[in-house]
Write a structure and sequence with these properties.
mainly beta, 5-stranded antiparallel beta sheet, 3 helices, 15 strands, 36% strand, disordered N terminus
Length: 252
Amino acid sequence: MAKFYCFVPLAFFMVLFVHAMSAGIDDKWHDAHATFYGDMQGGETMQGACGYGDLFEQGYGLETAALSTALFNDGLACGACFEIKCVSDPQWCIKNAGSIKVTATNFCPPNYSKPDGNWCNPPQKHFDLSMKMFTTIAYYRAGIIPVQYRRVPCIKSGGVKFEIQGNPYWLLVLVYNVGNAGDVSNVSIKGSNSGWLQMSHNWGQHWNIGTNLVGQALSFQVTTSDGKTLEFVNVAPSQWQFGQTYEANQNF
């Protein structure tokens, strides 16, 4: 009987633990609206407020969206993946189109001088999709559509990638190609001659630190929004260079 009573609390704890670790993924559908920007080739969707640069080279392609303030979370939502479907508008929703899956790669800024008709103003939840994604679920002429969305796991190929920028006294690292939750909430860095050092969130998915780590192999400790943390040991060799990208051998 003693073993039985020990097992029940342990099982209960494991259920809570698994639920907490899945907080970044949400099975529930939520209401929002969607528009589009750019052209069918992705014009105007490259670069952007998340700092990803060439979305084709970095694996995001046209399956992207800019988020309104209510969803963007000051850039910490960059990299999160969403499933979106057009709803409640039979005139403009494409019948049997199903849903699309996109990654957050940009910011749809508010316009406080135009309080009415600006869908990216708080507290509205809004997705400004690439034209390719918008016209997959709705007709081009719709302009704006009601949608439902939910957070879904990001499926990525290869390991997490770290692009190193800055200068010897101010290191700026872009973290991308992050699987599962997709969005990063915390980053620490470790040189081969240092302990773990906390990095600061700068903008988008850029993280910075004012410590000179030139000539040291670099390791990273990354936490995603679902609470999962992984250590990426010696991702960048001691001869790493500014402007280069280094890929880890694992992902979330």
